[in-house]
Amino acid sequence: MLVVDDERVLAETLVMILNQSGFEARAAYSGDEARKIAQEFSPQILISDVLLADQDGIELAMEIGRLLPQTRVLLFTGQHFVDERLRGPRAQGFDFEILAKPVHPQDLLTKLRG
Fold it and tell me: How far is it, in rounded angstroms, from Cα 32 to Cα 28?
């Protein structure tokens, strides 16, 4: 599992919770770092913030989805207009799941196991 968020504390906290819950998770703090880790690690699941400092999280998810089509993508955001921004990617066949930010750890674990 790869967690991408430019808020380091959030990314590290989610990785810690995921690892303690039996998942193998790593953190990335930028789009560039996420692409490098994804190519080396081939995560089964990508969890990314929609708003990253260096790149749009939706664009990053599409790039990783093309590179690793078997990767499940969860996007988390505090923005309400994200559904509109996902119309284009969904029309291209991307099926991203959305989680509201802040992400409650139990809700995330339930979603991952469900």
Answer: 9
- Domain 2-113 in CATH 3.40.50.2300? The answer is yes
DSSP state of 104: P
| Cα distance between residue 111 and residue 88, in whole Å | 24
- How far apart (Å, rounded) are the C-alpha atoms in residues 69 and 63? 10
Structure tokens that stand for 28 in this block = 């990335």
Residues 9-60: pLDDT tens digits?
A: 999 999 999 999 999 999 999 999 999 999 999 999 999 999 999 999 999 9
Helix (H, G, I), strand (E, B) or coil at 113: helix
Please choose, from the candidates 9, 7, 20, the residue with its C-alpha nearest in 3D space to the C-alpha of residue 108: 20
Amino acid in the structure at residue 9: V
Question: Where exactly are the structural domains of the chain?
Answer: 2-113
- Burial of 20 per CB tally in 10 Å (0-12, 13-18, 19+): exposed
- Is the bond preceding 102 in cis, omega lying within 30 degrees of 0? yes
